[in-house]
Amino acid sequence: MNMNNVNFETYFKNYPDENGYFGKYGGSYVSKELQTAMNEINDAYQTICKSRKFISELRRIRKEFQGRPTPISYLERLSGKLGNAQLYVKREDLNHTGAHKLNHCMGEVLLAKYMGKKKVIAETGAGQHGVALATAAAYFGLDCDIYMGAVDVKKQAPNVARMKILGARVVEVTDGMQTMKEAVDAAFLAYSKEYKDAIYCIGSVVGPHPFPMMVRDFQSVVGIEAREQFLEMTGELPDAVVACVGGGSNAMGLFSGFLNDPVEIYGVEPLGRGATLGDHAASLAYGEEGVMHGFNSIMLKDENGEPAPVYSVASGLDYPSSGPEHAFLHDIGRIKYDVVNDDETIEAFFELSRLEGIIPAIESSHAVAYGMKLAKQMGRGSVLINLSGRGDKDMDYVIEHYGIR
After folding, report:
1. Per-residue pLDDT tens over the stretch 97-131
2. Are 43 and 50 in contact (CB under 8 A)?
3. Strand partners, 390
4. Could you tell me which residues come within 8 angstroms of residue 316 by beta carbon, excluding any fewer than 6 positions away?
5. In angstroms, what is the C-alpha Rg of the chain?
6. Which positions ≥6 away from 215 have C-beta within 8 Å?
7. Do the domain assignments include residue 16?
């Protein structure tokens, strides 16, 4: 498959198709009962997303509650240190709750309210999706259960405290590797028992249809704003845009604004400790086609064809698959996917903090690290990086494991 078969002018009308497929990726691989629930969510979303009332309410929330639009910042000192290419960041760290996650959580919980649901259920890795959903649930007056792996509960203590303060019930998952995959497994199981009164608010562009489409649509505000802001700041489009990819919601948000433009797009996966299976979470780089958590995509598999154990210094990126739209855009060659390791990531974390006064999330630091490499390679031109979240949640972990550099 190649780009010649895809018309990016009409891309969002055609992808996904009515069954939730981006080419061969996506779909809905769930039980009959859960499929009924997915159909109900899809029907409600397809109705509500065209409603003036829903759109105007979401716009009001973004402006008055979330603090959107978030700005673009020019990184003058970091750019100067690297050479002649100019680096910019889209400041999703300044979105309320400190990351891009609230963009889709407010939309998903508004949808739950419209559907008459009483509770929202979700998984979280780094805790940013959990905090965002707990915030949205508090805003709209719904109950909220958040499933989180025991390893991540320890690693992300500040976010666990935030969720509890916001009134959410945090359920610690102690199965398997005790990280993101297990949290998703547990949340899905809970949802299968409660779907009549609850809605599962997936935290990325993953899961069964319609979630990869819905989360992309809610996150597209990032790309729409960024494109307009960059043109206003510089009079032209960036030469390249960069975002980190775990499940891939922040990336699809930014990339959706530039798919039809003559702009290079880079998705950055976590290489972790290296290329050995179990030492990284770079599914698009090292994975193969497979179904997990209700969708078909590219995933990392063990010798039995099951989801492989994964690792990343960033809790929000340690997932053994990627969103089906990323798999599709990878296969057709519109987006280039590459990797950075833990050491490069932590170096970028400190560089941005020291030179620009912005402490980035470890997840976002992957994109910053790659943007820095890209700037050196390019020599000139401009790079726009999605700073998907702030690093408050990561400071204790970084100091304990890496010290102060």
Report:
1. 999 999 999 999 999 999 999 999 999 988 889 99
2. no
3. 360
4. 125, 126, 128, 129, 180, 246, 361, 362, 363, 389
5. 19
6. 104, 108, 202, 204, 205, 249, 252
7. no
With respect to residue 6, please indicate whether it lies within any of the assigned structural domains.
no
Distance CA 197, CA 187 (A): 15
Q: Which helix (H) or strand (E) holds 228?
A: helix 211-234
- For residue 289, the domain's CATH number is 3.40.50.1100
User: Looking at the annotation, which residues are catalytic?
Assistant: 101, 123, 388
- Tens digit of pLDDT for each residue in 232-291? 999 999 999 999 999 999 999 999 999 999 999 999 999 999 999 999 999 999 999 999
Tokens of 366: 């992957």
Q: Which residues, other chains included, contact 257 with Cβ-Cβ below 8 Å and sequence gap of 6+?
A: 220, 222, 223, 224, 225, 226, 227
Both 56 and 75 in one domain: the answer is: no
Residue 370 · residue 266 · CB < 8 Å = yes
* 3-class SS of residue 224: helix
Same structural domain for residues 266 and 326? yes
Closest-CA residue to 204 (of 140, 112, 124): 124
How far apart (Å, rounded) are the C-alpha atoms in residues 64 and 367?
29
Residue 171 lies in a domain: yes
Residues 95 and 107 in one domain: no
DSSP single-letter state for residue 150? H
Q: Count of domains in the chain?
A: 2
Same domain? For 150 and 260 the reply is no
Is the residue at 11 inside a domain?
A: no
Can you read off the two tokens belonging to residue 78?
A: 């970091």
Give CA separation, 117 vs 138, 235, 271, in Å: 14, 46, 39
Do both 269 and 320 map to the same domain?
yes
